[in-house]
Structure formats: structure tokens, C-alpha cells
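User: I'll paste a sequence; please echo it back and then give the predicted structure.

Assistant: Echoing your sequence first, then the prediction.
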Amino acid sequence: MNLNSLDRFLKYVPAISRPSAPLSFKEKLRWTAVIMGIYYLMFSTPAFGVSTSTINQPLIQLISIVFASRIGSLITVGIGPIVLSSIVLQLIMGTGIINVDLNDPEQKGRFQSIQKTAAMIIAVVEAYIFVVTGYVPIISSAYTGLVVLQLALCAVFIVFMDEAMTKYGITSGINLFIAGGVAYSIVAGTTTILLAEAIQAIQAGGSTAIPNAVLAFAPLFFAIIVFLVSIYAYDMKVELPLVFSQLRGVGGRLPIPFLYVSVLPVILATSFELSLTVWMRFIANVTGPLANFAHFIAFYQLAPTSAGAASLTLVGGLVYLISPTFPLPYSTTYGGVGGYSAYFSYLATHTSELYVPWSSAANPVILFVPEWIHIVVYTLVLVALAVAFGKFWIEMTGQNPKTVAEQLEDVGWQIPGFRRDPRIVENILNKYIPTITVLGSIFVALLAALATLTGAVGTGMGVLLTVGIMYMVYQQLQQEHALEQYPQLNKMLS
């Protein structure tokens, strides 16, 4: 499919213009600080007409972290539309329905305009879904239109904030918005929940006071473990020797890190899973002959919250089995879980309902699925999705062996001991990049699943994403600093 016919429509899509001259490192830092300041302002401002007393479910907290949002605030929708539009368009490209050469600046710009347009449309749709399905509780139905309007406008504004950060800041807005939300969650969770539990344990006295106080900080310890393991994994890499064909004695190394695609596969996989839990709320009230099939896909029930109100909660079905719908060990708002003893008891005894779709509506057949099956299915699906998105991502972003070999050829690098032929270099890279991509994606997915199941504060997924994001930001800062110190190097690379 040729996308040139869309140019007459895409010219009306608003865009953030690029800076007229290259920005200095300090200017990029200033722009980053301004954009992040606006993000935190919207993060802390509740939408008018929203009831914030019933939005404490652990799944909602995880969705908020992955989508860099805060349910009930002006950025309730967060970066979800940006991520979802990217996934959809990448899948369409992968099927060959549309052909886009991302190395061509004109086609790349057209593709980005389509992606931005899709993100804005999805932002409006998700804002409507969030409010109409009760995902975002409102004070009264009279506020429905107003709340939808606020969330939709702010979601579209987030799309442009991300674009502005990409063009004027030090990295993409998606990265820093996620990291900022996780940092807030870790600080808030440690000070308002874990510290309070530790103080209560000490005040209770007795021989178990100190052990209970220490155990209260277990979610923080798990978060630190995930943090350290992630840092260690990022330092693991395979280095291939390189020589510059036109200058003898000039050599280097091509690093192929163990986490070759970083945490992007997990971001995409988790975003896909969480998007299903939100979008499938539309079938929560299906009745009649299709009720069993709807419940087989996703079964929602009204569950009480700590505020005494009821909230529509995913409790069964296929979507439940693949989603990270697990209680937090330090939370008493979901299934009555509080503390690791009660948490592990919950995992050992809880069951979810799986409706048999071909049974009669009057007398449905229900299978009770143990929670350990939920753990296994969630982990396996997360690993499979991460591997699929990891392999797909290196193809779409030009990190596959063929493209890397061509880039080395264009610059003038070659592997010593082999002829200067991109096909030979591609064969050598094929021994490393595909395998490392799969192994790295599996490792990140397993670490994310383990961290989620242990209830690390800020969610293990959030800590894992933050480490990956900050590592990428650190590399970009180093590159920016080097280019500013050596202007000739900047000219050569550009």
C-alpha cells in the first residue's frame, strides 16, 4: 500500500518544529527540565469531576507505571496511545500491508505523522473508554462529558510533549515520563506505606517487632535486587574486533550487549497485555447467548475497595491468565492481602473462574483455575511476547545483522581476517545478534515477571524499565558531551 496519497491529509496534522540550530547540551537539559516540570504538574493535578478514593488497585498501579500515567489525574491516559499506535503500525508493516523505507527521510516523516495521528485518535478513544466503563470513577454521571474532554485533551497534549522532548530534550518523552512516574512511586511507596508499616510493627512491641519492621521493607529490598541485577546485565556484552580499512592501525570494537534491545520488548509486551485488560472492559456487561464467550475471554466483577465503593475488576478469563493481575504484598485493598505470609497464602489458595464458552447461558460450566496456573501462563506469555517483539524490533529499527553490516561497510569498518564484504560481515553477525536478542528478551521478561510476583515497590516492572531507561539516557548524555567537546567529531558523524 502506497502512503503518498495520505499527504494531502497529513499536511494538516500539527507538528513541533525542529530547532533552527543545533542545541547545546545545557539547552537540551533546560528543555528537558521544563517538559518534565509540566509532566509532574499534570501528574499531580486531578481531573475535575473524578473521584480519587477508589483507584488503589495494584493492577491500576502497574498500568499507571507502564503507561507513565496516574489514574484520576490529567494524564490518566498517559503514553498508552503512543505505545499502542507504534505497536499497531509496526505489526501492519510486518505483515506487508504497507511498505515504508525508514531510511528515507521523506517516508520516515510520513510514517511518523501517521503514527502521531493514530496516537491522537487512540487517545480520544481511550479517554472515552476509561470514563464510560468506570475505569476512572467519576463523582456523578453529569461529569462524564467534562472528564472525557479533559482526559482526551491532556492525552493529545502528552503526544506533543513526547515529540517536543524528542526534538529538544536529551531523550524521548516516553522514557523520561516512565522513569519519572516510577521514581515518584518508589519514594511515595517507601515513605507512606513501608515506613508506616515498620513504625506500626515497632510500636506493637513484642519479640517479633524488629523482624516485622525489617520484613516491612522487603518490597524495597526486592526493588534494589532487581536494580542491581539489571545493571549487571547491561554491562554484559560481546565485542567484535574492527579495523578501519582506509587507515592502518586504526581499530575498534563493535559491542553487542546482552540486552541488545534493552527493555523495549517488555514495554511492548506489557503494554499489549495491559491494553487488553482495559479494552476488554467493553464486554463486561454482555448478556444473553454470548455471555459465556465474553466471560471466557475476560470476566469482570464489581469488587469492593478500601473506600467502600465498588470497582469493576478483572477476576477471570483468558485475559486474566495472561495479565499481571497479582496483589501487592503490602496492600490490603486487593483480596485482603497484607504482608508476605498472607500474599503467599493467597497465591496458594486463590482460584479464578474460566467459563466454558459452548456451555448454555442458563447453566454455565465454570472451571476453577488455581493461581499457580495464572503465574505460569502469565510468565510464559510474557516471555513469548517479549521474544516476538524483540525480534520484530531489531528488524523495524535497523538493528538486524544485514543493516548493521551495511552501516559498517558505509563507514569503512571491517572485521580483521575477512574480506571487506557486507555479506561476510552479515554472516558473522548472524551468529550473535539473533541469539543475543532472543536470550536478552527472555532474561528481561523473566526478571520482570519475577519482580512483579515478589511485589517490589514501584513494581518490579517499573524498576526494570527505569534502569534500562536511565542506562540509555546515560549513554546519550555521554555521546552529547563528547560531541560538544569535539566539534570535528560531530561534523564527521553528521
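The domain at 22-271+376-493 is CATH 1.10.3370.10 (Preprotein translocase SecY subunit). The chain has one domain: 22-271+376-493.
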